[in-house]
Amino acid sequence: MRVRPAGIEDLAGLLLLERDVFAAAGWSERSWLAELNVPGRHVVVADEDGRVQGCGVLMETVDSAEVLRVGVRASRRRRGIGRALLAELLAEAGRRRADRVVLEVEATNTAALGLYHGAGFRELARRHAYYGTGRDAVVMARTVGGPGLLRASRLLLRRLAATDLALLVELHCDSRVMRHIDAGPVTEPDVARLDLPRMLAANRRGLGYWVAADPTGADIGWFGLGPSDHGAEASLGYRLLPRAWGRGFATEGGGALVDYGFRTLGLERITATTMTVNAGSRRVLEKLGFRLVRTFFEDWTVPLPGSEHGDMEYEVRR
To answer: What number of helices (H) and strands (E) belong to the chain?
Structure first.
């Protein structure tokens, strides 16, 4: 599946999608012809083997942009297609230098509300009976700077939210994930009381943590840029579930954050630390262009296996 700009050749597929997703409320052929041709519109489709499985429409205004449409065929939902479409619309809003993006969604559409909240949108107002009796509209908006969504080749990264506790528990309580990080047992209460609040508090000034979803839409781990005491610097970190190991996802997600840190945040230096015996993480950092700065030795209360070989600090500069 790939997200690409739509053309007039997609009209038939878009009309079929409208009937599947929006039924009687779908746009007409005349409306779609206008959307595909009017200036100030950005129309994209999710193309799977030549078939339109989803669409997104962005309208440019004077200093902002509005999401007019995000729709995914019923048989293709819960695969990350909606996130990918929305990510492209937000990226286009940034390219058009919009200050913010707004949208409207029916108050009972919990799936869409979850998608938009996960992308950093917040409720501004409600329009009573906007879609008919008992069907209110929720008006939402988000700024374009400091994106809630980042894209890698095969990954979609969204801001960590309080609802991601289950994923953090699965990661932080897995001894395979933690074997080069923490010697002591980590419990679910530890993650809920300590890890999640700390990570959510770090989501400020463009830094923080992102949850990574693979091409199927499944969440596979997190990537983070932590603050530094040395000005325009940050530290890169990540954790992935074992089922995602060995597939190049660490390099893709790490690369997306390094690019974001340098291009969007204007960082001058990004560091990363790993145990000397963690050959996998060292290879990832080297592929991303990091160079070794030093080897040092931590004073562990409970030494990790291999800690006698020390830890390595790496850096990459803009």
So the answer is: 10, 15
Rg (CA), the chain: 22
**Distance, CA of 121 to CA of 124 (rounded, Å):** 9
Can you tell me the distance from the alpha carbon of 33 to that of 53, in angstroms, rounded to the nearest whole number?
18
Could you read off the pLDDT of 155-170 as tens digits, one per residue? 888 888 888 899 999 9
Structure tokens at 175: 């001894």
Cα gap 193→195, rounded to integer Å: 6
Q: Report the b/e string of 12-45 with b at 16+ CB within 10 A.
A: ebbbebbebbeeeebbeeeebeebbeeeeebbbb
Residue 130 and residue 95 in contact, taking contact as beta carbons nearer than 8 Å: no
Neighbours of 205 (CB within 10 A): 10
Quote the distance between the C-alpha of residue 68 and its chain's center. 21
Structure tokens at 193: 């009381």
Rounded Cα distance, 44 and 7, in Å: 9
Query: Which has more confidence, 180 or 274?
Result: 274
Q: pTM above 0.85?
A: no
Cα dihedral across residues 103, 107, 111, 117: positive or negative: positive
